[in-house]
Amino acid sequence: VNFKNVTLQVNFGSTTVPLPFKCHSVQQVPAADGVASPEQPKGVKFEVVFPVGVPDEGTFDWLDNFHEQKKGYAEISDRALAEWAEKSGMYRSKSTSWKNSNDKPDMSFGLPLMDDMSARKVLNAVVGTQPRNYVVMEVKGNLISEERKELMKRFQNPMFKTVAEVVIGEPPADFKAKQQKVLLAEKQLVADQEWMKRKADKEREKQARLRQKELEK
C-alpha cells in the first residue's frame, strides 16, 4: 500500500475509538484469514551480505541471480531505492547522463529529497534497526576496504552477521549459461526489430509504386 502526501498512524492493537462500521483489528483476525509469521529462533543471526566485485564485470547480474536463489533478502542499493520510489508513484525522467549506472543511477525525480540522496541517508540511518536479511550492493564501496568497513558499521547490532561475498573470477557454468541466454534474447530482439523495419519499408515502397501507377493512368 502506498501513500503520498499524508501522515499515517498505524495501530495494530485494539481500536482507539469505536468504529461506525464492523471491522476486525489485526489482533482479532480469524485464524482462517491470517498467516502468522514464524518467530526467529533464538541465537540465529540475520545475514548481511556485502558482494565484492569489479565494476562493469556483471556485479548486478550476479545480484539478480542471488535474489532468485536466496529469497527474503532486502536489497540496499541506489538501484533498489529508485525502484521503490517509482513503485510508490514517483515519476522518474529517463537519464541521458554518462554518469548514470546501475550502481549510481541518476535519480532525476525532480524532488530535492530524492535527487540529493537525502532519502538514502534516512534509509541508512534506520536499516540497522530492522531485523532481517540484507544484501548491500555498493560496487565501489564494497570493493574498497575502508569504505566497506564504514558500510558495515550500520550493522553492529549483535543480531547481524556480516558476510563478504567475493564475485571475482571465473563464474559458475550455470551463471554463464543463463547470461548467454539473456544476451541471445537481446540479440534476437534487435534482429526482430530490424526485420520488422525492413518489412515496413518494403511495404511503404510497394504502396508508393501502386499510387504512382494509379496517377499515371
Protein described:
The chain is an alpha/beta fold. The chain folds into two domains: 44-169, 3-Layer(aba) Sandwich (Rossmann fold), CATH 3.40.50; 173-206. Helices cover 42% and strands 10% of the residues. It contains seven helices and four strands. It has helices at residues 59-69, 78-87, 112-115, 118-126, 139-143, 145-152, 173-216; strands at residues 46-52, 73-76, 133-136, 160-166. It has a four-stranded parallel sheet. The model has no long low-confidence stretch (mean pLDDT 86).
CATH architecture verdict of the largest domain: 3-Layer(aba) Sandwich
Distance between the termini: 66 Å
Main sheet attributes: strand count, strand direction, barrel closure: 4 strands, parallel
- For this structure, the CATH topology of the largest domain is Rossmann fold
Total beta strands: 4
Shape, principal axes of CA atoms: extended
Helix/strand structural class: alpha/beta
**How many helix segments?**
7
Query: What is the count of structural domains?
Result: 2
The residue fraction in helices comes out at: 40-55%
What is the overall pLDDT average? 86
Q: Work out the radius of gyration.
A: 26 Å
What are the secondary-structure elements, in order, as H or E?
EHEHHHEHHEH
Uncertain ranges: none
The amount of beta strand, in percent, is: 5-15%
Strand order of the largest sheet: 2-3-1-4
- The CATH class of the largest domain turns out to be Alpha Beta
